[in-house]
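Q: What structure does this chain adopt?
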Amino acid sequence: MNTISVGELRQNPAAALADVQRGQTYVVTQHRRPIARLVPAPAPGPSGAEVMRAAEQWRREAAGSVAPGKGFTQEWLAELRASVVLDDPWSR
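A:
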């Protein structure tokens, strides 16, 4: 984990953000005291439209109007569940 002061971050934010984009983490300090942490953003989950399409496809398959295996699959469901961000820092 890297440390960067507010002044250093202000002078060259692009370099620090490029490092964060590559997966590094920074602790931001002010007067040598930690005040913030710069961390890579989590990968985006599926959009609302994608979830709604999947739910509709699943509903049609469950009702029997789509041939099994031709639409919604268990592998796709597992992938969708794995992509959901459970610890969303913006929800606090």
